[in-house]
């Protein structure tokens, strides 16, 4: 093949390609508008970043997550909590308590010692029970009317909120409104119900 023949064949090949491309593009242009093409390209550009958000079956991830959730406690306090001794600060109900334990002052986990009255309001917390693996809502109520017994003082900070969120702040002494002395004695931890 001579160089001039090779050039002529290449020109014919390019011109054939050019003619086919021109024909396809002219047909496409005759059937669509510029605005339609721009709108579709814009829609595609907007949709592409959303593809990672689509639900994808991740069977391996689901099994490992379920296994971890069953064996791992939701907080550092819960990982060390016990359910046998209510006179110890690591008792599971005391995850958000701040004060003296009524169990060591003559009362119970959910009852005030004799001679004291429960505060009309309480703060709440959600504590993990290691025995059954469930979390429960706990109402912490101060017992008021006598001097502080100071036998066992505990500080649990799970879910503790600043004082402008008083329903979950364990630093407030809730003895106001008892009708008796506003002196703080101890704190109880009553289970309200299961946490979801």
UniProtKB/TrEMBL annotation:
Domain annotation Methylamine/Aralkylamine dehydrogenase light chain C-terminal: ranges:
82-194
**One of the GO biological process terms:** amine metabolic process
EC category name: oxidoreductase
Q: Which pathway does the database say it acts in?
A: One-carbon metabolism; methylamine degradation; formaldehyde from methylamine: step 1/1
> Record's Gene Ontology CC terms?
outer membrane-bounded periplasmic space
Q: Which residues form the active site?
A: 123, 142
What are its E.C. numbers?
Answer: 1.4.9.1
Keyword terms, alphabetized: Disulfide bond, Electron transport, Oxidoreductase, Periplasm, Signal, Transport, TTQ
List locations, semicolon-separated.
Periplasm
Q: Which residues carry this modification: Tryptophylquinone?
A: 123
Recorded GO MF terms: aliphatic amine dehydrogenase activity; methylamine dehydrogenase (amicyanin) activity
Annotated crosslink Tryptophan tryptophylquinone (Trp-Trp) location: 123-174
Q: Spell out the family assignment given in the record's similarity comment.
A: Belongs to the aromatic amine dehydrogenase light chain family.
The protein's name in its UniProt record: Methylamine dehydrogenase (amicyanin)
Source species of the chain: Acetobacter ghanensis
